[in-house]
Amino acid sequence: MVLAPVIALTLLVLALTLLVALTLLVVVALTLLVLVALTLLVLVALTLLVLALGR
Length: 55
Hints:
The protein is an all-alpha fold. It has one domain (14-55). It has one helix and no strands. The longest helix has 52 residues, at 3-54.
């Protein structure tokens, strides 16, 4: 009878930890995507600038 609350608490903590970990993963993934997109935009802009100046 004493073990039931302990097991429930442990499961709850595990679930919360997983949730936090998943949230962090999503945030990191989104940040990386934004960084990649910005880098690509900058590269495209620089390429266009070079082409425009080259002409």
